[in-house]
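Hello,

Following up on my earlier ticket. Below are the three sequence lines again, exactly as submitted.
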Amino acid sequence: MLDLQLASLFTVGFLIVIGLFSAIFIDNVIKKLMGIAFIEEGVNLFIVTLGYKEGGIVPIYLPGMDANWFSSTAAYPLPYGLVLTSIVIGASTLAVMLALTMVLYKKYGTLSASKMLASREESELNE
Amino acid sequence: MIEYLIMIIAVVSAILALVQRDLLKAAILTGISGAAIAFLFQILLAPDVALTQAIVGAAIIPVFISLAIKKTRRDDG
Amino acid sequence: MNELIPIMVIIPMTCALLLSLFSNQNKLIKGLAFFVAICIPIIPLLSNYGLHYFGGHAPLISNLTGVLYHPAVTYSFQSLQKLFIFLLGILVFLVVFIYINSYKKASGPYLFLIFMGTAAITALMLSDDIFHMFIFFEIAALVQVGIIAASSIEDRYETALKYMIMGSIGGPMLLLGIGILLAITGSVNITDIVYAINHNLVSMNSPVFLLACGLIFFGWLYTSGLPPFHTIKSAVYSKAEPHAAALLQAFTVITLVSILIAMFRIFSNLPIFEALLVGFALLAMILGISMALTQNDFRRMIGFLAVGELGFIVLGIGLNTEFALTAGLFQAINEMIVTALLFIGFGVVADLIKTSDIRKTGGLIAYYPKLAIMILIGGFSMAGVPPLNGFQSKLMLIQASLSSGFPEISIIAILVSIATFVVFVKVFYAMFLKPKPNDLVIPNKKVPRSTIFAMAILLIMCIILGLFPSIITGYISGFVGGLL
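Thanks for your patience. The regenerated structure is below:
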């Protein structure tokens, strides 16, 4: 059986590769943005995986616990604190991108990235 | 055992979301992937992060995407 | 007074929130914005050098190993930070001054973006913690997108979306690199990471360490607009309002410098790192200048020139001698001033005559003589004509590359400077000297007085720094001495 940490890292790899593939190669803008959400989730999962300790406990210090025992068995809490911020940043970035997509849909009537970009290049040449 | 199942769900629903023709279904599958990752955070000893991810990944992001789809179009194209 | 160090970030951020709160009271937000814009350059002058630990968590000494480590987010304020934050403050003041004078109704959300960006960039410069830098990196990217989307130039939303999609690939890559560094050193504090690396607690040649270097480097390339992101970065500049473009390039330069210094401290022992920096610097210089030569839109042209100038900064750091580092950072300061001057000048012209195509312009010197002279001197400074500031820093860079044994690089740098001069003379001729085309309508409007005032201040700074470069280089070499 695979080690949990290693299996989790494989999940990270799959999520990032799927996300990068869709963000670069899929034409539909909404699907591009979904791919970006997957990349962010993958990176967050990576950082959480760093803090995990085999057979550890949740890093919350309760009264009555022995400090030495706690520090040797609890998971490393620093990465968990970082991920909270990064989740919120990811969601807000996605919201702004979706808003821009809605504005652009009104202008072009399509969600295809290549069509939006193509008309942009043409108008630049005509300037 | 359940943790490996959850990892497979997270990856497979991400792939299914991207091959889906109907964007609304794809948004829901994104939510499933986010929820699976929230469970995974719980298993990896991070309950506080799991709580945030459950709200953001399983509820807020799919709702945002479905709102955007409602204002634009539902089919892939 | 060390308490002033966090205030440099807190004041613009609070001001931004207040401005957005009271956005329907025009007079109030104009007054508040003006007052805070005056305060921002003054605070770094009053503050003392030193460190600030958030929450008062001073560094601890580990019982087991006797190693000092930092549990708190640390801000480090030294001479370089003082210089850059002061200059950023001056630019913010000029931009806010232009904005509140040229629009009758000030927009609260727009001023929110300007001040939030200032706070984010100040924090990036001060921070000694890589994750903290990542947060403000993302905020700065969002602010830049907001500033573009708030302008009134055609095709701004397309550029904004494209910039954000690239950013959401670059940002997570930077975070992944930070995660790997956290995994191999157990800390996100740069001083701790550098300690671990210098005491061989981390294997220098491990592929994981190289991967972290590559990922952080990729994120840095995105935010500083070096190739392969030079096209989108110059599009971003050309889609913003003129005063906002001046601020955006200052944001870019400071982000570039702050992340580059962090990377330099962590990765400078890697043999490949300097080669990477010099390679990308030369690529940026050559691509920037050759793209600028082919453009017909003078805003895009200045955008590409600005990207090309970034190459000189990176070149100075990549050469890795004390003199070269000083030269590179001095070039960063000159570039901030000169490019701001040119963006404001060219942007005002484009706003007045409603076109930015050099094939349709001409004969403007009879209408805007003051503007023409200021733009001419600014362009000479960017191309490196003595005795202006661009000449001083480029001369230092060329001397540095000669003395570190790379005469080829100095030849390329001289050629790029000459090409910059050619591009600039071409634009200047097409805009101001060439006979006026018949279909060009020149509106009966004067150049706003606030714009002339801002440009004059920037020009005076150019000339003073050109005549007395030691005002700045003293500060920089003090910092560089501590860095190496």
